[in-house]
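Model the whole thing, not chain by chain.
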Amino acid sequence: MSDLFQISLSALQSFQTAISVTSNNIANANTPGYAEESVDLSNEVAAGGLQLGIGNGVEVESVNRAYSALAENQLNTSQSSLSALTSQQTLTNQIDNIVGTTAGGVSTALTNYYNAWSTVANDPTSTAARQALLGTAQSLAQAFQTTSGQLQNLNTQINSGITTDVSQINADAQSIAALNAQITIGTANGGGQPPNDLLDQRDSIIANLSTLVGISTTTDSNGAVNVFIGAGQPLVLQNTVTQLTTVPNQFDASQLEISTATSQGNVISNSITSGDLGGLLAARSQAVTPTLNELGQIAVGLTTSVNAQQNAGLDLTGALGANLFTTLTPAVTASSKNTDATSASAAITSVGALTGDSYVLSYKSGAYSLTDQQTGAAVAFTGTGTSANPITADGLAITLSGTPASGDEFLIQPTTNAAGNVAVALTNPSQLAAAGALQTAAGANNTGSATIGAASVQTPSNANLLTPTTITFSSPTSYTAGGNTYAYTSGGNIALNGWQVAISGTPAAGDTFTVQPGAAGNNQNALALAGQATLGVVDGGTVSVSGATSDLVTSVGTVAQQTNTAVTAQTSINTQAKQTVQSISGVNLDDEAASLLQWQQAYQASAQAFTIGNSVFTTLMDSINGTYS
Amino acid sequence: MRITQGLEQTQFISALNSLESNIATNQNDISTGLAFTTPSENPAAAGSVNELDQVLSQSQQFSTNATSANSSLETESNALGQLQTQLQSLYSLTLEANSGTESASNLSAIGAQVTQIQNTLLSVANTQDGAGNYIFGGYATQAAPFALTATGATYSGDTGQAKVQIAAGETVATGDNGDVVFNQIKNGNGTFTVTAGTGNTGSGVIGNTSVTNAAAYDGKPYTISFTGPTAYSINTVPPTTGTYTSGQAIAFDGVQITLSGAPATGDTFAVDPSTNQSIFTTVQNLITALQSPSSSSTGKAQLNNALAGVLNGLTQAITNTGNVEAQVGGRLNAITTAQSVATSQQTQLQTSISSLQSLDYTSAVTTLTAQQTQLSAAMQAYTLTQGLSLFKYIQ
């Protein structure tokens, strides 16, 4: 008889538990990271074994979580990729807005600047036209500086993102380690009942961690989870944590890198490719820096070509033109890990050969090696790094102050900071070199048919460059110039005093030709400077400075578009993974409603069994009472 | 597939976000009228628009350059017109002086008029444009290029010719230097000159000269020497000799020279290849000839010969000025053509830019309507499915 009560009681208790679990599921239907729980019931065997095959009621073996480690891992991985892309997207969209359709205003300013030279060419002695040109040059410099400054600000933004991410990663790692300790104890003491709440909590922290950085996990037999980041660097092992820190880049202290220790030796930035942190690092190396480099390349192309043409002309005072823009030189920084004080410097030898990339020069075991920082490829070079024989490659000449220690490295950035440094060097409008340095003329009384071409400046530094020279033909086959007699060949170059000119045709004896400094009304150099609007300068001299701004707009737009597309694609992969996890671990309210009814009915039935047991017992008692009465 | 209410909720919200963001982008496009406002919306078109904008702006600058060149050339054209008028006046005055009937006082009155014109010519040669630049100085625009001297005028300009760009690959000269306009003028008939010897005692007067066979003329200096009143000899190889008849042409080596009057024995006439002679030298020669009239037949012949040289010089100058005027006209035409080409090019560029950048309103509005329908449908579907719950039926 006590069996009947025992059985009913066990059922009532078990079903009450089941109803509680269901209610708890309903209560946590919207709790992130909560996994649906279910009761595991089993037949309770009587102490003396089954009697006539009847058990001793029901018991709750355990309350289990609906959980698939595989699905969770897939979700975490896809979440890491999505976070990386989302943080990249934020930055590429900002670059997209900064550069915009006019390369940050550079292309508009550039056209105004070139047009201003045309206006100067229309009236080379007009101070107003020259003043206007200086104004447009100033606006152009401003446009470069502003755009570069806005892009540099993104680096600051990335740095603070990295700092925040690293501190959150450390906090999450601490929490996981602490939960590991509790779960290990809980599992050991639970007698087979898993510590579900703690597991849920840990899973939710791991999910959060995977939005910050890509991770991989292993689970030990005692229930503890080990977390690894990057190329397998342990973040959490059982209940110990390896803290991450940020350290300045060995070359550029303004850029933060991730390290597993405070020393430079353990920088792991390169192996972190996913999660918000991976996205920030990728955006910096693949979007911000390349954009700065490309903008800088335009700046270097512009200033170098303009200055060269200015130097080849005469200003209003009759002097050779000075640089209109300040000269942009490549930035060279020694690694903070270098053990030697050797310094390096670099100069641009050919604007057309510049790639827009930065380079790392390493010295190891007596030999230099040069690596393209963007592509990671080794770059062929010539020279030994001395000032007489500099290391030359890709339009650069690198000179070292001595022999560095083995293992020393230098970063050469030919264009990264160039756009931010564009500045107008001239203040006086009369210093603009609108006139050609030299003009040529045939003598008024020449009787031969020879003609003289335009003179070109070969050596601007020649002290006698601007000395007027007369070329006199003593016979149709020889001429004297600057006190010396030379043989004449039609079409051949005549070089003197740093200039070069060609005379062709048949001169007569006594014919003269003059080469003299350009007069104030000469506008040849202004025309040449205006003509630079379409002159090939960068990319091997095939693309004009204006054309390069269009290329920049397209490349920035393409990167942003690609990122947007990748985010859309990754979002649907992530949604898929979420659906899978939810279909396994999520709470479906209709399910719970059905369970609730099921358990309610079972509870009611068990209670009924109890009532029946009671009535059976009463019947028995009554019969006994009747016997003795 | 097991769907949970939490997932449904999240998915609905993210779908809602993406729909609303699409609508916002579309709305922004419609309100700005642009098909894209950032390069990422259409990278290739953004690059092209950037490029086309620059080409357009450059083309507009070319139009500005053309306008500026046009005004410089108009200034030059005016100056050349004035020059032509003055040269014509000089020509008439010289003809008048050469008629042989003018008295010494008349000649001196003509001389005064010529001196007046000489000053006008100088001011034409030193014409300045609106900005104060001397238009006939070549590149040397800052100082007056011409200054009168006792024998003509000096030219301190240069032979430069400023050009401006009026189209891609097309430049036009904005003027001509004074050397070309005033100095580079051949004397005589343009090929050779005939000059009476300064010691001539007869009254031989130089008439028409011409080249009859350009291939036979070798450009060497020759002298026609009168060995008697009716006999002459020319130092060609071998020497050419002939009988002189007044008014009849003397021909040798492809040239023909008409002399008239009575040359004396020993009189010479030099035949030299033409050299450049400045307009100012020609005018000075005229003034000098008019200052020393003589009533003797020899003196009259000298005056006639001098005036014949001046007339030749003026004819050449008038031709040269006409040539320069024709060139200026040609340049003005080129500018007009370039400007009309530039205008149509600019229209075309604007059309291209607009076709790349301007919004297709019809399709944008259609898309917006479709997006709105989609959004309201999604909202309705959500509220419908949210109503489905087993709990509603558990009483």
